[in-house]
Amino acid sequence: MSLRTVKVALAVVIACFALAAAYISVLVVERQDALKQVSRYNVAWGVSQAVSEFLRLEQRISAFGVPGNLIDKGEIELRLDILIGRAELLDQGEFHEFLRRDPAHAAVIVQLNQALEQVQALTPQLHKPGAVKRAIAILSPLDAKVAGLASAANLYGAARVSEDQNELLRLHQLFSATAGGLILCGFVLIALLVSHNQLLAKAHCDLRNLAANLQQASVELETANAAVHAANGELQTQNETLQSQEFELRRQNDRFDAALNNMSQALCMADATERVIVCNERFLSLFELHSSDIEPGTPLSDVIARAAQSNGLEHLAQIYGEQRPLIQERRGAVFVHGRSDGRTIAVSHRPMAHGGWVATYEDITERKRAESQIAYMAHHDALTDLANRVLFREHIERTLAQAKRRGDTIAMICLDLDHFKTVNDTLGHQAGDAVLKAVAERLRSCVRQGDVVARLGGDEFAVLQVSPNQPRDAAALAARLVQTIGAPYHIDGQEVVIGTSVGVALSDEECFLPDQLLKRADLALYCAKADGRGTCRFFEAEMDAQLHARRALELDLRKALANGEFELSYQPQVSIATREVTGYEALLRWPHPERGLVPPSEFIPVAEDTGLIGQLGNWVIEQACREAAAWPTGLSVAVNLSPVQFRNRALVDIVVRALQSSGLPPARLEVEITESVLLQDNDSTVDMLHQLRALGVRVALDDFGTGYSSLSYLRSFPFDKIKIDQSFVRELSTRADCLAIVQSITRLGASLRMTTIAEGVETEEQVRQLRAAGCVEAQGYLFGHPKPAHELAHAGPDAAATQAA
Ligand code: C2E
Ligand code: CA
Ligand code: CA
Q1: CA of 701 to the centre of ligand 2 (A)
Q2: Strand 777-778 relative to strand 567-575, pairing
Q3: Distances from the Cα of 722 to the Cαs of 208, 528, 601, 707, 750, in angstroms?
Q4: Residue 599 exposure: Cα atoms within 13 Å on the Cβ side
Q5: CB 461 within 8 A of CB 455
Q6: Which ligand 1 atom sits nearest the alpha carbon of residue 587?
């Protein structure tokens, strides 16, 4: 049932209620009327009362007529009045309906009233005779009529009662029916209300669902809206992209045109029928064509047909000939075409997706030239034009493989220039480069055809020699190299002398790898240098062990330095004239727990090579100053300084600090340097020496006469002392030239106001000769071996006593 139907039904039921209520009120009114009707039972009673009063009056009048009666005339008059009242009542109210129904009854009432009037009129003379008779005569004819009226009234009353009862019954039934109807309506109403409620609940639920659905629908709508919006945006973006693409396409087209005509390569595109689609300006110029010769749509064969007309077209015809198989097989390829005029054209041929092809033609003549130049440069040393390490390695590999096949022996000769760094430092890099070039030239001149010369870097060179007479040929070549390279060079008007150390390794069954061979030659070179420069060494199996030994020494040296294992010994220097000790030379000692006393000649070069000499040298300076400070004031101390120490600009500061902390006056400190110190970065070294001298420290030139013996060194710095090397002293008595050298040195020293001191003096004879030569001081075992500070003469008990005195 729908809500609407329920509502209509409800309205109907409510209307029914109203109607029933109205009707019930009508029924109530009616019922009240009916009840009022019941009072009509009085009609019968009233009539019967009137009848009984009439009969009583008649009886009283009759009785009055009887003589002797005790009836009072007043009583008769009262009865009459009552009757008259009754009769008047019968003409009023409900009696009207009764009388209206039957005119006879009304007539009776009229007759009664008339009779009573007559009787009333008679009443006052009633005592008179006949009056009673007359009165009875007036009344008696009415007896029957009055009785009849009473019975009619009774009948009427009964009829009315039943009528009213019927009416009441009907009303009761109606009322009950209506009440029942109302109750039914009530039930219907309740049912309808329940159903209405249910429907309402259902409707509410439906409404809620509907609302939810609506909400979801709204969300979906919104999403759809957003999607539409996004799609719209996308569309717009696409539109814009399309526009920009179109713009870009146009621009690209322009660029393509520009690129096509500006590209360094010539380009030609042909369709499946071998007609030209497009070609660029470079294509025209490369093949000496005019733009009118080859318009889009021109068959290539037509162009080629004119090959005889120009060289360019002839080349094109040749290249096209090479392209033909590619065109037929629909294959891409890159090939190089060597033109008869010496130029090289690189062709890149590509078939196109829908038939036809595109090809680029590039004149790569220059590039090829540049490439081969680069390749050459990558394999050659730019300065000397010798093979570099890369090319040399390739040579070694190749030569080794060949030699192995033929059973030949290869000699690997490694060279390292001696003192080349000094040339660079003193004469500048340009002079250094010139020397390197000259060395390369000389190397070339020494080798035979087939030998390979290379510069491995810096001042390192190598020669690869193939010869059936090994090791003889290698030894000969090595000797030749040492000699040739050792000859003086003339660079910018200056004479430069450099030597070379040579290491040689020969290939054998065990050594057939380039790296191995190089390593062996390098090891031999290393040993050659260690032996003293300007020498040649062949690789020996023990060299490896020597290298290991050196490494071990290096390691021990580091440890010794960290553990303070070094000591200083002091060797006296005496005045030849007085034989008095003037001072001591500090000499480094390394008493090693396992190696024993390691000589300085063994560990100092290692310390120099590894840079450890810096730290070690600083310690020597400090220690010598500290110990010398405790000596008698007239005694000085001489400290040896390695050339490597001069590379440290802080050397002067180190000396200053050592003097300050020990309290030794600078005048009592002497530093000994060798000529090699002056070989390196001269200005800075000389500057440092001047600073030391300015402090008051004296400077001695050690081992004079060995090294370079260039007198110019003596001029380069005002030394305080020249130490004549012990090699001259040793052979003083046996070799005349030694004496001559010593004599000239002492003379030179004297003229330059430098003290001269002879080293390694062991005999009195040597002392005599030295004195004769004019030498001032001497040092050697004759006067004392190097000793620790506490064993020196002045430190003994006697010396202490002398000093005290
Ligand atoms: P050097 O400066 O020429 O030292 C003199 C060397 O000759 C010392 O050898 C000394 O013991 C030795 N000698 C002295 N008198 C005689 C002699 O009558 N006959 C012989 N045959 N030899 C004598 P040493 O101590 O073995 O020193 C060798 C070299 O080690 C020194 O030569 C010096 O160049 C270097 N050296 C020693 N101590 C130091 C140092 O503290 N610093 C630096 N940089 N080098 C040092
Ligand atoms: Ca010395
Ligand atoms: Ca010396």
Answers
A1: 9
A2: antiparallel
A3: 122, 30, 21, 14, 10
A4: 2
A5: yes
A6: 38
Q: Using an 8 Å Cβ cutoff, are 456 and 521 in contact?
A: no
Nearest Cα neighbor of 195 from 4, 476, 458 is 4
597 Cα: distance to centroid of ligand 1 (angstroms)? 14
Strands (E), 652-725: 669-673, 698-704, 721-724
> Is 604 a pocket residue for ligand 1 (Cβ < 6 Å)?
yes
Alpha-carbon gap, residue 61 to 132, rounded angstroms: 6
Q: Lowest-pLDDT range, 246-255, 426-435, 796-805? A: 796-805
**602 or 100: which leads in pLDDT:** 602
Distance 643 CA to ligand 1 centre (A): 15
Range 540-549, long-range pairs (CB < 8 A, 24+ positions): 547/523
* DSSP letter, residue 299: B
% of the chain exceeding 90 in pLDDT: 41
**CB distance 487 to 388 below 8 Å:** no
The token pair that represents 226 in the structure block? 């957003």
Quick one: which atom of ligand 1 is closest to the CA of 613?
44
Find the 613 Cα to ligand 1 centroid distance in Å. 16
pLDDT for 193 equals: 81
Token pair listed for 691: 């600073």
Q: How far apart are CA 784 and CA 795, in angstroms?
A: 14
pLDDT given at position 709: 54
Phi, psi (5° rounding) for residue 479?
A: -60, -40
DSSP string, 401-457: HHHHHHT-EEEEEEEEEETHHHHHHHH-HHHHHHHHHHHHHHHHHHSPTT-EEEEEE
Helix/strand/coil for 531 = coil
Pocket test residue of 587, 644, 765 for ligand 1, highest count of atoms within 8 A of CB: 587
Residues 309-325 have pLDDT tens digits of: 788 888 899 999 999 99
- For 671-687, letters b (16+ CB in 10 Å) and e give bbbbbbbbbbbbeebee
pLDDT bin (cut points 50, 70, 90) of residue 805 is very low
Ligand number with the minimum distance to the CA of 761: 1
Cα torsion angle, 711, 715, 717, 723, sign: positive
Ligand 1 pocket check: which of 606, 616, 759 to mutate, most ligand atoms within 8 Å of Cβ? 759
Q: Which ligand is nearest to the CA of 672?
A: 2
Q: Would you state the pLDDT for residue 104?
A: 83
Percentage with pLDDT > 70 across the chain: 96
- The CA distance from 171 to 685, in Å, is 157
428: left (phi > 0), else alpha (psi -120 to 50), else beta?
left
Give the pairing type, strands 357-363 and 536-538. Answer: unpaired
**Contact yes or no for 112/147 (Cβ under 8 A):** no
| 587 Cβ inside 6 Å of ligand 1 | yes
What's this model's pTM, rounded to 2 decimal places? 0.48
Q: Please tell me what DSSP assigns to residue 793.
A: G
* 94 C-beta neighbours (distance < 10 Å), count: 16
Rounded Cα gap, residues 329 and 322, in angstroms: 12
Instruction: Write the secondary structure of 34-75 as one string of H (helix), E (strand) and C (coil).
Output: HHHHHCCHHHHHHHHHHHHHHHHHHHHHHHHHCCCCCCCHHH
- Please work out whether the CB of residue 599 comes within 6 Å of at least one atom of ligand 1: yes
DSSP β-ladder status, 489-491 and 494-496: antiparallel
User: Helix count (H) and strand count (E) of the chain?
Assistant: 27, 22
- CB of residue 554 inside a 6 A radius of ligand 1: no
Whether 510 and 427 have beta carbons less than 8 Å apart is answered as: no
Rounded Cα gap, residues 715 and 232, in angstroms: 97
